[in-house]
Write a structure and sequence with these properties.
This protein is of the alpha/beta class and about 180 residues long. It has five helices and five strands; from the N terminus they run αβααβαβαββ. The protein has a three-stranded parallel sheet, covered by helices on one side. A two-stranded antiparallel ribbon has the order 4-5. Helix 4 runs parallel beside helix 5. The protein is globular, with a radius of gyration of 18 Å.
Amino acid sequence: IMYAYPSGLSPELIELMSGESNVLPYLDVPLQHVSPKVLAAMGRRHPANLRDVLHAMKNRIPGLVLRTTMMVGFPGETDDDFEQLMDFFRNVEFNRLGVFKFSAEEGSRAARLPDQVRQGIKEVRRRKLMALQRKISRRANRSLVGTTLPVLVHGYSEETDLLLVGRTKGQAPEIDGQ
């Protein structure tokens, strides 16, 4: 399920995903950030119990793969806001994470906000969050050693016709690799 906004993570969705074998246990939740202050500046909000909801989903849906995308360096983001983001990922442990730096688009409301974050700080924050994610991913990948996973084969590799290309149920097409 792609682009499942946090407000849509309902008990009914958890029930559906845990009980239907024809629904892949893959959930892309576009969070962008978790600091209430940064979210308010973005014009977004998440349920106060988001961590609990995500933990409930992980506990109830066997093999659930969670994916999201985060933005660092939004105007006004403080060290404390960034630490909230890091704590959230240490606690929830997403399987897949994309991190991008805020870029002020000419004419956008966010480009005119005060307290623009310097590029160097944005890059340091992006690297720190990705380093944390690498540790999380490495641990998850190690848990798969010795297991066999079903793969949907797409065809031959672009590199050579001696290799096939495919993806597991935890890899969205054109997003999570192959």
